[in-house]
Structure formats: structure tokens, C-alpha cells
Amino acid sequence: MMEFSFLPPRKAVFGVGVSEMVGDEVVALGRRVMVVSDPGVVKAGLVEPIRKDIEARRGETILFSQIASNPRDVDCEKGVEIARDFGVDVLVAVGGGSVIDTAKCIATVLTNGGQPGDWYGFDKLKKYPAPLIAIPTTAGTGSEVTTCAVVTNSATRVKECIQDTKLAPSVALVDPEMTLSVPPLLTAATGMDALSHAVEAYTCTLANPLTDIFALKAISIIARWLETAWANGSDLEARTQMSLGCLLGGYAFSNADTSGVHCMAESLGGLYDTPHGIACAIFLPFVTEFNISADPQKHADVASAMGVDILGLSPEEGAMRGVEAMHRLCANLKIPKLKDLGYVKEADFPELARRAAQNVSADSNPRKAGEEEYLELYKKAYKS
């Protein structure tokens, strides 16, 4: 008998220019505002208009932008200290997934107390985090609508996850114009992250009929528009479609899960600080091929959603055409190979495999995979 749950999204507003609504949204939640961002987004000039809009509505703002590309617990702790000193009652995150996840972590500790590490795991929050408005500046993580925050434990260099239905931002303002300045490599990386979210949400063991709808639509949009956005960052239609694909993928995986791709990518990112989207792009074709035997038809559906002609092919053959399309997409986007990163050591593969097998999403992979299987996948990706 079919049984599943789906968390309805909290408020999300989508469209060109909707970031200008931030002042009105903020004053409904509080007056003393921490704007969370990173140095690149600040330099791009995306933060100051947000602060001015809030201050024009009698809000008071303080900026916290000391955030690494993979958010760390120490960054969150510093943010909490600044927020408490300022008397923050609402946060506004302007940035990519690292910024939004950091803001989620800060908001969690502000109301629940303790340290970030006290809240790693599932459904541990005692109170709702402080109100958070998320304004994404990349089309990749979907963190603006998800119920999780990934934070690196700086002592162990392991990526940890706070997962709780209370953690979704209060409001998401998804404005494609905010992504126009994203450079090509980051466009490619975040886009492949979004694609991996959708693929894994559709094929993982926790997929359900509702997440399938969101995931397949996300796959089709991203596969159609990512190369265009990468080649011409000023193409607003391409940026709009990518923002939509990312949003749909976020709804899908936050109500299903990710799986082996993220297990491997988060292990790599924790140990080497590899950009998350690059890691997801590297491993997506290899994990997808590994998983085909668990459900050939679903993997053939992925290929079809990517625009691959699978007419007359068996599910297994169609699924492999999808894997080939993933490899081509990575090549077209100039995603580096694992070996080409230059710092990955084969001697670290057993540790990476151990971490992947222990990842919180490991059980969601459609085909059973332990340390031995992940070790072989790291080796295969490295030799490709």
C-alpha cells in the first residue's frame, strides 16, 4: 500500500524583481536585521540595495559576510555572537547555498541555544529558528526552500547536516535577476548540483509520486537551459528557467532525499574543501550508472527528461544513454575531472569511501552501497 508524506512549502515568491519585496517581508517579521552574505556577493553589489530597502522601511541592519565556500561551524558561531550583540530578530540571507545554510544554522542557534553541533541530525530542534528570508543568488542548492543545512565540522572536516521540518526559511524570494552576475564555472557547478538534486530525488528510495513530479520537471528544465545560462550569463530567460529548475529540485529532494552522489560529494568537500557543485557534477554520471540495475525504468525516465531519444530501447539501454548525456554535459561545461583537481590523493580513497558509506543519505541510495562500492566508484571516477 502506498504511503508517503509531503511538507507543503512555506512562502516562496518567484519572478524577476521580487527581491525588491524584501523590505515589506522583513517588517512583518522584525526590525533588527542581520544580512548574511559572502564577500563575492557583496562585491557584486547585490547586498547594498537589499540593506537600503530594509532601512527605508525603518529596519536596522548589520552585515555578516565572513563565510567560506563550504560553510563551517566556526563561521556560524561567529555569526551567532554578532547577531546576539546586535539584538537580531530576523535574518536575510543573500547568496548561494553556503550563505543560506550558514544563516539557517545561525537562526537555529539563536533560538535553540548551544552550539551548531548540538543540532546535527534529524528533527532535534526544540524551537523554530529565528525568522529567515532567503534570497538566492545562484541556481543550484535549492536551500531557499529546503529543511536542511549542511555545515562542515572544522575539527573533523566532516560535513554534518541539521535536518528538521522547522528549518525551512520563512520566506524565499527567488529573483532570477540576482543570478545574472554569476560567472560561467559557478553557473555550471551550481546547475549540476541542482540537476543532481532532481535526479537523486527521483531515483532514491524515499521518492514518492509528488516528489517525482517536481523532480522530472526540474530535470527537463535544467537539461534544456543550463548550457545556455553558462554560455550567456546575461540571458534572463535562461537564468529564469534555471532558477525555476533549482526551486523545483529543492522541493523534490527536501521531501525525498539525495543519495550516493551527495554521499561522495560531501565526503570530498569535507576533506578537501572542494566546491560542492563541482563534486556533484564529477560523481553524478558514475553513481547514476552504478544505480541503473536497481530501477532501470526510473533511470530511463531520467534520460528521457534530459531530452535523450530512448524510443525503441530497453530501459537499461535508455538509462545508459542518459549517463552518456551526463558525461557530455559535464564536458561541454568544462567541469574538471576528479584527477584534474590536482589535490585528490588515491591514498585518501578508503577514508572518503568510509565517510560516504556513513553519510545520512546513504540508506536512500537505490542500490545498496557500502565502503567497498564507494571505494570502487572513487577509483572509477579518478581513472576516467
Q: Tell me which CATH architecture of the largest domain applies here.
A: Up-down Bundle
- Contiguous uncertain segments of 5+ residues: none
**Largest sheet geometry:** 6 strands, parallel
- In percent terms, what proportion of residues is strand? 5-15%
Q: Please state the structural category.
A: alpha/beta
Count every beta strand, where a strand is a DSSP E run of 2 or more residues.
9
Count of helix runs? 14
CATH class of the largest domain: Mainly Alpha
Radius of gyration, in angstroms, nearest whole number: 20 Å
- CATH homologous superfamily identity of the largest domain: Dehydroquinate synthase-like - alpha domain
Distance between the termini: 42 Å
Name the strands of the widest sheet in spatial order: 1-9-6-4-2-3
> What is the H/E string?
EHEHHEHEHEEEEEHHHHHHHHH
CATH topology of the largest domain: Dehydroquinate synthase-like, alpha domain
Number of domains: 2
- General form: globular
Indicate the multimeric state: single chain
Mean pLDDT, to the nearest integer, reads 97
Percentage of residues assigned to helices: 40-55%
